[in-house]
Amino acid sequence: MGLTAVQLRGALDTLAANEPAFAAAIARVGYPPPRIRERGYATLLRTIIGQQVSVQSAQSVWNKLESIVGSLDDPGNITRASDEQLREAGMSRQKASYARSLADEVTSGRLDLANLPADDDEAVAALVRVKGIGRWSAEVYLLFAEGRGDIWPAGDLAVQIEVGRILGHETRPSEKLIRELAEAWRPHRGAAAIFAWHQYGIGTQVI
């Protein structure tokens, strides 16, 4: 489970006490709501199905797939499904291969989502071995589903934009600079990322 509202607020208050720019940003846009996902296989499968499509389209594929192959909480149902069944649900050849890769990693025991490495970098490495799960998807899973509070998705465009705005940079900071700047925010970088997404969402709504 991800960071609770209490955990998120506590982490951001700590950041604000040490970084006045964060205190000012929180005063402007308020605290973000928690971003919590279920831990386990189904959440990663949703990540794969949702890549590069709208939320509505992803849900439609999910519903069709579940009606064809059965519960998507069981990776065995993807393993046993035919290519024709996956296509019938609306999955591209590429996404079908990604879904099979995930199901195979889980059913074989090579990927144990109940016992990922305690070290964040090692946990990311375990997840990106799945075809279709890149570093960003792995980091978001660890932050939203496991509540790992120091995950820092520095490659995320919105995080770069909003950290730049919070700190008063004239241009968007690079991923390298974002990583360097955030070293001082350990062990609360995950809360900083969630706040950055919160501020970005508010900004895009205003625009």
Q: Would you summarize the structure shown here?
A:
This protein has 2 domains: 5-36 and 150-206, Orthogonal Bundle (Endonuclease Iii, domain 2); 41-144, Hypothetical protein, domain 2 (Endonuclease III, domain 1, Orthogonal Bundle), CATH 1.10.340. Helices cover 64% and strands 0% of the residues.
Itemize the secondary structure elements and their pairings.
Elements: H1 5-18, H2 20-29, H3 41-49, H4 55-69, H5 75-80, H6 83-88, H7 93-108, H8 120-128, H9 135-144, H10 157-167, H11 175-182, H12 189-206
Question: What can you tell me about this protein's structure?
Answer:
The chain has helices at residues 5-18, 20-29, 41-49, 55-69, 75-80, 83-88, 93-108, 120-128, 135-144, 157-167, 175-182, 189-206. α1 crosses α2 (20-29) and α8 packs across α9. 64% of the residues lie in helices and 0% in strands. The model has no long low-confidence stretch (mean pLDDT 94). It starts with a helix and ends with a helix. The chain has 207 residues and is mainly alpha-helical. The protein folds into 2 domains: 5-36 and 150-206, Endonuclease Iii, domain 2 (Orthogonal Bundle); 41-144, Hypothetical protein, domain 2 (Endonuclease III, domain 1), CATH 1.10.340. The protein is built from 12 helices and no strands. It is elongated.
